[in-house]
Amino acid sequence: MPQTTPLIDLTPDQQIRLDRQMEFLREMDKLKSVLRGTKLINKSRRENSAEHSWHIMLYAAVLAEHAGPDVDIARVLRMLLIHDIVEIDAGDAPIHGHVDHAAMELKEAAAADRLFNLLPADQARAFRALWDEFEAAKTPDAQFAKAIDRTQPPVGNLHSGGGSWIEYNVTMDQIDTRVGVPINRGAPVLWAWLHPLLSNFFAKR
Amino acid sequence: MPQTTPLIDLTPDQQIRLDRQMEFLREMDKLKSVLRGTKLINKSRRENSAEHSWHIMLYAAVLAEHAGPDVDIARVLRMLLIHDIVEIDAGDAPIHGHVDHAAMELKEAAAADRLFNLLPADQARAFRALWDEFEAAKTPDAQFAKAIDRTQPPVGNLHSGGGSWIEYNVTMDQIDTRVGVPINRGAPVLWAWLHPLLSNFFAKR
Ligand SMILES: [Ca+2]
């Protein structure tokens, strides 16, 4: 029987850290079962928050040239990687749904407390700080990350005849407020591309 | 009617680049419909390649401290982000299934030609070079990325009573060759953690 014998022995500290890290990573599997308001472009089913996170990281990598000069794309990618994990406990709040935002914030903070603390303490702090920065949307990195998070659903909806806009009866006014404001703030080039397509789509409805 | 007027006008070059970038990003939605051999830990359904890509990026970020000193995690994340997109055309080849590897390589190269070339030429070249590097598995970044790609399924399977190992009738010998070799090469610390758990699991079968 061939044996791929480990090349090294773990230190006790490595063993403890890996046990915690792997427990966190296993728990993260649950994000694949959190469903969003949006559907896949082929309309076969709702999108889940794990595949959405992958997709917007690809958006950020491909659209990096349209970020401001003070944006660090590697940090943006790390932010987007973890931006939705609180939904494992708190669920997704559809952008066009009716949500009690204060209650949702409390739920998400409790989720962040539980989930990030599955990690070793130093990593829990670092990941939590990155998530807090994303949520606060004050830094250039966070504002670009938020803009990217808002860009993917309309690009898909425009391609699939309206998608979740039809279901939620969305107007151009609402798109302006909920999508246009954050994209225009974090990535004005993307809003300049998206705005005429959206205006045209909603003018025809 | 409130209007979030774009703050800038696009240059003709920006317009052309964004049209292509957005077409590529829309096409990528299809990776969410490529199903893998593995199931979610809760066994509710098969995992798709988009959410798998997200999950292994999280593995890479959390387990970065266990990489060698010459590994650049930001590059590893970019590699993992795109490592599976050829499956949109070529499909997933389950690691424990029976696959004609030469035929699969041709299919994947054709897929890479079509898909990456949806992007502006400079980006098509850069993304393709990164994917080629991952596939060749010669650099420290690619070897760590491959090790991470091989680590996630067994961690899940160990937690769900065997998962795809049962379905594919996998033995410890096969795990040693297909999983142990690449993990031991790219991330020996992870194999030192995983090996005793796997030995124990397969000894009991
Ligand atoms: Ca893979």
UniProtKB/TrEMBL annotation, chains A, B:
Domain of life: Bacteria
This protein's UniProt keywords: Hydrolase, Metal-binding
Pfam families from the UniProt entry: HD_3
InterPro entries named among the record's database cross-references: HD_domain (IPR006674), YfbR/HDDC2 (IPR039356)
One GO cellular component term noted in the UniProt record for this chain: cytoplasm
All copies of domain HD, residue ranges: 28-191
GO molecular function, a single term: metal ion binding
Listed name of the protein: 5'-nucleotidase
Annotated organism of origin: Pseudosulfitobacter pseudonitzschiae
